[in-house]
Design brief:
alpha+beta, 15 helices, eight-stranded antiparallel β-sheet
């Protein structure tokens, strides 16, 4: 009881995950709080060590705040149109000021641009830059040049361009900038990262960077083909998914953050700054539905490079450039978000067997083909190799979709997705006439289907359960309906949907599995937002569209004021939980919106 009270106490103090806005240059991302502080930024890539890690500790672990002197949170903020350019406003007794934040699409060096503009009155503004490299651990040396403050530590160097007329000085490991914002005046700051051995940094025009960044995002968003009633939520989700794509390689990260807790004060804290085959494939499916084809072509090339080698050694997760080694380590010098430890970097899921990824990958290749993207011969060769590997392994137990740490099991969802892989492969072979062992694939499809129907259904209740022989429910069993494994009017499907709706309810949302289901970790967690969208999908398939739409709206409304969703939601404390923004959640939102009509 004492431990529970302590977790409760921790959960009610400190910052909130939904306080943050997302910036991205399509190679890394920054999180900006309502108080005007950039509390998270990894440079130069999503999975690089951070230079701002206050998100997992405090300002002393790295942050950059620009705001009116003595002010708290901004009084209003928004993205400028269909972009990821953020505008935050403060109304103070001295007047009004706004800060425009952006990460320009990169040419050579990553940059964070912050433009302060006076709106009314004369507002004293204070900037406090604390650079702490290697995830908040290393305090750099700082030197002054004519136009810059240069912070250097090991391989990293950050150059802060200081505008003329701004009083800038060092104090207690912080670069302080002070000035007064007056109407019509724009004061730009540019922070540039580059390797420390370079002695100069390119000159930049902040206003030109702003104009180009606005144009780039607007042009991309203009391709959206969704015309349904939830256009704003769909577009904002697709912009977020685009922001998580690593442009040089086509890889897509699951989230730009690490170790944001699933339970405040607990240890369910994971690093999501990598490319899960499952998450990446699902992200591509959402982008394709939205009309964005270029990302699909880039991701297929990334996939070919990432899985090259022994097909039996396909990993569930890779680095953004296809790296295979992602060792999981802990950072004891960071106290964690809301005291949630350990803080982890890297992810041990790299060594897990997750058979469902075959289904997600092949399903996405099928969707790309049906979207008009030609099937290249090397992609077809990869698909045949993957199906051969799956045929040899599909009866094995695995760690499954939820990456349990309590040993492998015969998870129902993994088997259903093995069926999806075989089914979509057959469909593509029949559609294209490309060479394929069709009879073997059809036999694989039938064998998986028969075994799942025999072993994954609770004979007493007639519902699909978490794993063979188990009694626990799992929201992932909803895929028996949404993948076409069984028709939606099959009695087992109807009973499973109703069982999940009732048995996994958590404050009107859906848990991913029952609170008593073993996963190898202590403590409970919140409602899993993607699962709530999956239930809406299944309800729509059962013809219960009004009920599905109501659940969709309820779940989508949990986004913050900028349309961003994390992994989970706490219905008790009414707060987002887990890494943010979460690709898995935004993918589910987009797919459900299309299913409901768009």
């Amino acid at each position: 009881m004492a431990a529970a009270r302590e977790r409760r106490r921790i959960s009610l103090v400190g910052g909130r995950i939904e306080d943050y806005a997302l910036l991205s240059d399509l190679q890394t991302a920054a999180l900006v709080g309502r108080d005007g502080a950039v509390d998270w930024l990894c440079l130069p890539r999503f999975d690089s060590p951070s230079c701002f890690a206050a998100l997992l500790g405090g300002p002393e672990h790295g942050a950059w705040r620009i705001a009116p002197a003595g002010a708290g949170d901004c009084t209003g903020r928004r993205y400028l149109g269909d972009t990821l350019v953020l505008e935050s406003r403060w109304r103070t007794p001295d007047g009004e000021v706004k800060v425009v934040d952006l990460m320009p699409h990169r040419d050579r060096a990553p940059r964070l641009v912050r433009i302060v503009e006076g709106v009314s009155g004369a507002v004293p503004v204070r900037g406090e830059l604390r650079l702490r490299f290697h995830h908040g651990r290393v305090d750099p040396w700082v030197r002054r040049t004519e136009r810059h403050r240069v912070a250097v530590a090991g391989p990293d160097a950050a150059w802060l361009r200081v505008p003329p007329g701004v009083h800038t000085y060092g104090a207690d490991g912080t670069t302080v900038s002070e000035f007064t914002a007056r109407p019509g005046e724009r004061v730009p700051f540019v922070l540039t990262w580059q390797p420390s051995h370079l002695s100069t940094t390119p000159r930049t025009d902040p206003e030109a960077l702003l104009a180009a960044t606005l144009d780039g995002w607007r042009e991309w968003a203009g391709q959206l083909r969704y015309r349904g009633e939830w256009r704003e939520a769909v577009l904002r989700s697709l912009l977020t998914l685009k922001a998580l794509a690593y442009e040089p390689t086509g890889g897509i990260v699951a989230a730009p953050t690490s170790s944001l807790p699933e339970v405040p004060g607990g240890e369910r804290n994971w690093d999501y700054r990598f490319c899960w085959l499952r998450d990446s494939a699902m992200t591509l499916s959402a982008l394709l539905r939205g009309g964005f084809r270029q990302e699909a072509a880039a991701w297929r090339k990334w996939l070919l490079r990432a899985v090259a080698g022994d097909p039996s050694d396909v990993q569930a997760v890779y680095g953004v450039a296809g790296e295979r080694g992602l060792p999981e380590t802990e950072a004891p010098w960071l106290p964690g978000h809301l005291g949630s430890t350990p803080v982890r970097f890297g992810n041990a899921a790299v060594g897990q067997l997750q058979l469902d990824v075959y289904g997600e990958v092949v399903d996405t290749l099928d969707l790309a083909l049906r979207a008009g993207i030609p099937m290249e011969r090397q992609v077809w060769s990869l698909l045949r190799t993957l199906l051969g590997s799956l045929a040899a392994r599909w009866r094995e137990p695995d760690e499954g979709l939820w990456e349990v740490r309590c040993g492998r099991r015969q998870f129902t969802h993994s088997k259903v997705m093995a069926w999806v892989a075989a089914d979509r492969a057959v469909r593509m072979a029949e559609a294209t006439g490309l060479p394929a062992p069709l009879e073997q694939w059809r036999a694989l499809r039938e064998a998986v289907h028969a075994e799942v129907c025999e072993r994954a259904v609770d004979p007493r209740r007639g519902v699909f359960v978490r794993s063979y022989g188990a009694t626990e429910l799992d929201a992932a069993t909803l895929f028996v309906a949404t993948t076409g494994f069984l028709p939606p009017d099959d009695e087992r499907v109807v009973r499973t949907v109703e069982a999940v709706q009732e048995g996994l309810d958590h404050g009107g949302l859906v848990r991913r599995y029952g609170a008593g289901a073993a996963d190898g970790l202590p403590g409970s967690e919140g409602a899993f937002l993607a699962c709530s969208f999956w239930l809406a999908d299944a309800l729509a398939l059962l013809g219960r569209r009004d009920e599905a739409a109501e659940l969709f709206v309820r779940t989508a409304s949990l986004a913050n004021d900028l349309g961003l969703l994390s992994e989970q939601w706490d219905p008790v404390d009414h707060r987002q939980l887990g890494n943010t923004p979460q690709a898995f959640t935004h993918v589910a939102l987009v797919n459900t919106a299309f299913r409901l009509g768009g």
